[in-house]
Amino acid sequence: MSLASNTTVASVHPDAVLDALDPEQREVALALTGPVCVLAGAGTGKTRAITHRIAYGVRSGAYKPTSVLAVTFTARAAGEMRTRLRELGVVGVQARTFHAAALRQLGYFWPRVVGGAPPQILEHKASAVAEAARRIGVSVDRVAVRDLSSEVEWAKVSLVVAEDYVKAALADDRPAPSGYDHQTVARLLTAYEDVKTERGVIDFEDVLLMLADMLSSHPQVAEEVRSQYRHFVVDEYQDVSPLQQFLLDQWLGGRRELCVVGDPSQTIYSFTGATPHYLLDFTRTYPDAQVIRLVRDYRSTPQVVHLANEVLRRGRVAGALELRAQRPAGPPVSFTVYDDDEAEAAGIAARAGRLVADGVRPSEIAVLYRTNAQSEAFEAALADAGISYQVRGGERFFQRKDVRDAVVLLRGAARSADGDQPMPELVRDVLTSAGWSERPPAARGAARERWEAMNALVGLADDLARAGTDEQPATLATLVAELEERAAAQHAPTVEGVTLASLHAAKGLEWDAVFLAGMSEGLMPISLAETDQAVAEERRLLYVGVTRARVHLEVSYARSRNPGGRASRKRTRFLDGLWPDEPRGRTAGPGTRRRGQARQQLTGEADVELFDALREWRLSVARETDKPAYTILGDATLAEIAEVRPSSIAQLARINGIGPAKIDRYGATILALVADAGSP
């Protein structure tokens, strides 16, 4: 049997692989025999360490490439691992998700063990769950079907059968979904399996379960797989479920050639059945395991790393690693309070626009939030500001019809391409017929999204052309092959727009600038987090959000949901003692407290003295007119003036909270205050 094709490795001295590694990463690369546990903090180069370990093992002769199986949790991560190994001159290593590896093996052995073709896979559980609910006499709507589908998935990845569900859910302190009782869910689990059997389909969890069962009950199959794969690497091991661990145990068959990599502080998927238990107890399972800690953070500035460490330290997170920043100092983390959600979205859009004006690419900016429902306000604000954006978690890039059509056109053009015309020009000619143009359309919405997708293909063509050589230039066929490989790995090219994403969807990604929005109680931690374990996971989720930022990090929340609403929200408890409430080194009398609270609006780029001067001016106007100070200009508006420091009426008019009437009344005075603040 051959589950992977044989290959040869470039004849480069093995030690050359180690040159680019720091001492701890080098230790990982040299740990060629298992068991090995790599505890890797955010931004510490874990992918570099484990891919170099595999490459060193292959080049030194310790591993055959086809004997290595590296598994991770997303197709994107698996694709990145394969790309890095290829760049290191190593091909033939199997780097796949758990499901992709299991599906490949199940498809190979099914005809021999069971006979015929494997069952069709149920892409979505909703229809089967809805039918199961109908059979047991339960009324469900769309939301209930979604929640029940998630519960079915949790039970299956947790290896909980219907007969044991009630006991297991109670032991896990797991509330029944959508208001149903546990007994009803147990009955639904049985009915769901019946529906699948009658339809002749299996779900994604069945793929892992059936392969694991096949390996445990058919020694010849197990021997064939185990003789093929002798060395295992598991990335993101803190997110392994009992089902995945069960399959991994069958692959290993009692052997010890296992290297696991993970970070208990980034466990954020417990609700899906993931557990850090296997990572935290690895040395109990393997008392002689080599444990290596990666704590040098190459991603984030010291300011970001400090906040990340403090979020964990104050929560006493089990197994937390204290990161050590390796980058030069950057701007301070900024903390801003807005009056309402609309003001927060507008403020963040304005800040993003200024970052772009300062040279930060839109694709290197992200707005992260706790729930998907929060994205709408940011979509509207960015659209109003004329800033391109993409919502992560929506339709996948290669599943878009316009992208599929464009790839078909490129594939056809590759067959008859003019060899004398540069590849990027050919691509532009082809995509012009698919709706691309040199300039983006003025229209928003679908038309703009279509152009952004086409432009991402143009950008990828340019990147490949630059990477080509005179001896081996990139061709249209090269681009098509790259697109096909990326489509298989769901590794989309970069779309040049600000990323909007939930904190969960941001896992594994990073940007130059990150806005953590909606950081108030009820959203962070979310109100549904009612147990200590759930709250602890919310803290880890915040840590993941903080560590996505390389340079710029801005944290904010809004006091009320709607403009003019009651200011009842409080900032997240996770930032108690970290949010700069008051100036340091002063006695906080009433006036100082009010000034300290107002300064919560300030970012690290604001002129504090100008802000105080603006507040003093506003107070004098309030006294003269016998009006509340906030009706003249709000603190958020004064903070933005202190940050932007406008020098003209036109610049002042672009600041949120200043309309034509207030410019007429106060514009000249404000500009004079700004000018005075800038004088020596």
From TrEMBL:
<feature type="domain" description="UvrD-like helicase ATP-binding">
    <location>
        <begin position="19"/>
        <end position="301"/>
    </location>
</feature>
<feature type="domain" description="HRDC">
    <location>
        <begin position="604"/>
        <end position="680"/>
    </location>
</feature>
<dbReference type="GO" id="GO:0016887">
    <property type="term" value="F:ATP hydrolysis activity"/>
</dbReference>
<dbReference type="GO" id="GO:0005829">
    <property type="term" value="C:cytosol"/>
</dbReference>
<keyword id="KW-0347">Helicase</keyword>
<keyword id="KW-0378">Hydrolase</keyword>
<dbReference type="InterPro" id="IPR044876">
    <property type="entry name" value="HRDC_dom_sf"/>
</dbReference>
<keyword id="KW-0067">ATP-binding</keyword>
<feature type="region of interest" description="Disordered">
    <location>
        <begin position="576"/>
        <end position="601"/>
    </location>
</feature>
<dbReference type="InterPro" id="IPR013986">
    <property type="entry name" value="DExx_box_DNA_helicase_dom_sf"/>
</dbReference>
<comment type="similarity">
    <text>Belongs to the helicase family. UvrD subfamily.</text>
</comment>
<dbReference type="GO" id="GO:0033202">
    <property type="term" value="C:DNA helicase complex"/>
</dbReference>
<keyword id="KW-0413">Isomerase</keyword>
<dbReference type="InterPro" id="IPR010997">
    <property type="entry name" value="HRDC-like_sf"/>
</dbReference>
<dbReference type="GO" id="GO:0043138">
    <property type="term" value="F:3'-5' DNA helicase activity"/>
</dbReference>
<dbReference type="Pfam" id="PF00580">
    <property type="entry name" value="UvrD-helicase"/>
</dbReference>
<dbReference type="Pfam" id="PF00570">
    <property type="entry name" value="HRDC"/>
</dbReference>
<dbReference type="Pfam" id="PF13361">
    <property type="entry name" value="UvrD_C"/>
</dbReference>
<dbReference type="GO" id="GO:0000725">
    <property type="term" value="P:recombinational repair"/>
</dbReference>
<dbReference type="InterPro" id="IPR000212">
    <property type="entry name" value="DNA_helicase_UvrD/REP"/>
</dbReference>
<feature type="domain" description="UvrD-like helicase C-terminal">
    <location>
        <begin position="302"/>
        <end position="551"/>
    </location>
</feature>
<dbReference type="InterPro" id="IPR014017">
    <property type="entry name" value="DNA_helicase_UvrD-like_C"/>
</dbReference>
<dbReference type="GO" id="GO:0005524">
    <property type="term" value="F:ATP binding"/>
</dbReference>
<dbReference type="GO" id="GO:0003677">
    <property type="term" value="F:DNA binding"/>
</dbReference>
<dbReference type="InterPro" id="IPR002121">
    <property type="entry name" value="HRDC_dom"/>
</dbReference>
<feature type="binding site">
    <location>
        <begin position="40"/>
        <end position="47"/>
    </location>
    <ligand>
        <name>ATP</name>
    </ligand>
</feature>
<protein>
    <recommendedName>
        <fullName>DNA 3'-5' helicase</fullName>
        <ecNumber>5.6.2.4</ecNumber>
    </recommendedName>
</protein>
<dbReference type="InterPro" id="IPR027417">
    <property type="entry name" value="P-loop_NTPase"/>
</dbReference>
<dbReference type="InterPro" id="IPR014016">
    <property type="entry name" value="UvrD-like_ATP-bd"/>
</dbReference>
<keyword id="KW-0547">Nucleotide-binding</keyword>
